[in-house]
């Protein structure tokens, strides 16, 4: 059982996740979505991590935010057009600083092992390349369902088709719908997809939207919260979790 009384109470209520979640492993302190970033987030006391999961051409699930490789690796082009054998050799750390030269793109399976070994939870955002949502959702769900060491996972996506495919593949995985805004029909979509949570941009959370989501029985989370006043505002609205880049500032 968790030593943290808030976490223990949340787990008892069917929501085992901590309030603070490290965005892309460690926000901006390390090269996003790498194991080095996860290690930094963990050293800062974080016990839950958000990450972005996508597919290689041959169906390997690995971590990368962008469709293209240029910003965070020494590769070029669309990640989805390359086999894992090519992606696995890329440097995903040098862009961030000399200390991270040689850091690799991690497979989702490695990240699961990292978290499971440390008793941490994982928020896997399914990040499909255009037109690839169903394949991506299916493969992410397969990897999570096959994990050697299961752990508390929250599966999320902006792409309903990815969540639908994941739900079909592994119905038992906890799902959350990502939203930039609360546009018409969002609640029906969340219900249709069997989501227990809605994860919205922090500016989208108001007294009204927090009340609507709460009344629908949904857990409420916000991304990406990097400001003290905003964190306080969202906490006062009763949100269940905040995703942040500032792992050296907000103490979980
Ligand atoms: O999952 C929340 C957040 O990560 C969504 O935005 O672009 O940082 O993946 P993005
Ligand atoms: Mg993300």
Describe the structure.
By secondary structure, the chain is α/β, with parallel strands linked by helices. It has one domain (5-244): Alpha-Beta Barrel (TIM Barrel), CATH 3.20.20.190. It has helices spanning 5-12, 35-43, 84-87, 108-117, 133-145, 160-169, 186-192, 207-215, 228-236, and strands at residues 20-22, 48-55, 61-63, 121-126, 153-157, 174-179, 197-201, 219-223, 241-244. Strand 7 (197-201), helix 8 and strand 8 (219-223) form a beta-alpha-beta unit. The chain binds SN-glycerol-3-phosphate and magnesium ion (MG). Residues 23, 50, 52, 65, 125, 156, 178, 199, 223-224, 243 line the site of SN-glycerol-3-phosphate. SN-glycerol-3-phosphate binds next to strand 2.
Summarize the structure.
This protein is α/β, with parallel strands linked by helices and 252 residues long. The protein contains nine helices and nine strands.
Ligands: SN-glycerol-3-phosphate, magnesium ion
Mean of residue pLDDT values: 95
Strand content: 15-25%
The poorly predicted ranges are none
Named at the architecture level, the CATH assignment is Alpha-Beta Barrel
Give me the CATH fold name.
TIM Barrel
Coarse structural class: alpha/beta
Major beta sheet summary: 9 strands, mixed
Percent helix: 25-40%
**Euclidean distance between termini CA atoms:** 18 Å
Q: How many discrete structural domains?
A: 1
Strand arrangement across the biggest beta sheet: 1-9-8-7-6-5-4-2-3
Number of strands: 9
Global Rg: 17 Å
Q: Count of helical segments?
A: 9
Order of H and E elements: HEHEEHHEHEHEHEHEHE
Question: What would CATH call the homologous superfamily?
Answer: Phosphatidylinositol (PI) phosphodiesterase
């Amino acid at each position: 059982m968790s030593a943290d009384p808030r976490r223990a109470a949340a787990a008892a209520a069917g929501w085992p996740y901590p309030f603070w979640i490290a965005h892309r492993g460690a926000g901006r302190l390390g090269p996003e979505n790498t194991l080095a970033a996860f290690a930094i987030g963990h050293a800062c006391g974080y016990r839950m991590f958000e990450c972005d999961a996508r597919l290689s051409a041959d169906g390997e699930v690995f971590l990368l935010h962008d469709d293209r490789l240029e910003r965070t690796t020494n590769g070029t082009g669309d990640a989805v057009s390359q086999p894992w054998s090519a992606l696995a050799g890329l440097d995903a750390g040098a862009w961030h600083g000399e200390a991270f030269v040689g850091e690799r793109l991690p497979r989702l399976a490695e990240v699961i092992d990292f978290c499971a070994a440390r008793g941490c939870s994982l928020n896997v955002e399914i990040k499909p390349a255009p037109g690839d949502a169903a394949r991506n959702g299916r493969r992410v769900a397969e990897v999570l369902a096959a994990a050697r060491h299961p752990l508390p996972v929250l599966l999320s996506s902006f792409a309903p088709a990815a969540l639908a495919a994941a739900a079909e593949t592994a119905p038992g995985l906890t799902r959350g719908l990502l939203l930039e805004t609360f546009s018409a029909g969002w609640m029906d979509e969340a219900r249709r997809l069997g989501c227990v949570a809605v994860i919205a941009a922090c500016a989208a959370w108001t007294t009204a939207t927090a009340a609507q989501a709460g009344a629908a029985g949904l857990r409420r989370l916000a991304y990406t919260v990097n400001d003290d006043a905003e964190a306080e505002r969202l906490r006062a609205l009763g949100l269940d979790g905040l995703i942040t880049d500032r792992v050296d500032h907000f103490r979980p």
